[in-house]
Amino acid sequence: SYELTQSPSVSVSPGQAARITCSADILPKQYTYWYQQKSGQAPLLVIYKDSQRPSGIPERFSGSRSGTTVTLTISGVQAEDEADYYCQSADSSGTHVVFGGGTKLTVL
Amino acid sequence: QVQLRESGPGLVKPSETLSLTCSVSGGSLSSYYWSWIRQSPAKGLEWIGYIHYSGNTNYNPSLKSRVTISVDTSKNVFSLNLIDVTAADTATYFCARVAEDTWSLYFDAWGQGTLVTVPS
User: Fold this and answer.
1) Total CB pairs under 8 A between chain A and B
2) Which partner from A103, B10, B67, B107 sits 20 to 30 angstroms from A79, CA to CA?
3) To probe the interface with A, which of B52, B56, B69, B105 has the most A CB atoms within 10 Å?
4) Is B73 helix (H, G, I), strand (E, B) or coil?
5) What is the Cα–Cα distance from A16 to B11, expressed in whole angstroms?
6) CB contact under 8 A, A45 and B106
7) Taking CB atoms and an 8 Å cutoff, what residues of chain A touch B47?
8) CA–CA separation, B61 and B40 (whole Å)
9) Quick check: A48 and B101 CB within 8 A?
């Protein structure tokens, strides 16, 4: 198995951009997905296939990839964006799911 | 819009079997894969396994020896059995739908989660 590595926390002021990264050697061969989880709630998909945004997710959420690192960017962060964010991918077979450890986004 | 809801005991004794059911409403089980995922402070989000409505399964290798996921299309539910539990299995258990997207494996609908405690 392999691991997805996320920084434990990110803090930004309202209106600034938040960048949350996820890295692992396997990433170049598999898509990455991002979930937002607010306290006491289930995770919510905010980015799929590295950079696609599901219907209903605000445009300020975007995803990108560079080498073995994928990044979730929240432009113009709002107080309601404070949450834990998890990346997710699959192993080399594409059949086993792996989650990152999560990043806590604090809006100052 | 599809909705998922987990149900089952909130307390399971050590060495016993954890059994949960996920009821799916607003859509059919057909044509999708369905998954169980758990979350604990120690391990974060951990994928347990998934099942196709036809019955094909795939499990997390770290749990494979103890896990069974089954589906009942007539009742529109799928279930999780985890045998020989210990305190390390204490977690919030989520059921989720695997998105219908070729060459992709991710979750586009989740249940609210249910906390299962295994006392030490």
Assistant:
1) 60
2) B107
3) B105
4) coil
5) 44
6) yes
7) 96-99
8) 18
9) yes
Q: Tell me the pLDDT of chain B (120 aa) as tens digits.
A: 999 999 999 999 999 999 999 999 999 888 899 999 999 998 899 999 999 989 999 999 999 999 999 999 999 999 999 999 999 999 999 999 999 887 789 999 999 999 999 999
d(CA B41, CA B5): 22
Token pair in block for residue A2: 């392999």
C-alpha distances (whole Å) from B61 to each of A66, A96, B66, B104 are 29, 9, 10, 20
At which residue do the structure tokens 């792996």 appear?
A: A98
The Cα of A56 is separated from the nearest Cα of chain B by a number of Å equal to 12
What pLDDT score was predicted for residue B10? 96
Amino acid identity, position A66: S
Q: B60 to chain A: nearest residue by CA?
A: A96
More confident residue, B91 or A1: B91
Q: Which of A90, A15, A1, A84 is nearest to A43 (CA)?
A: A84
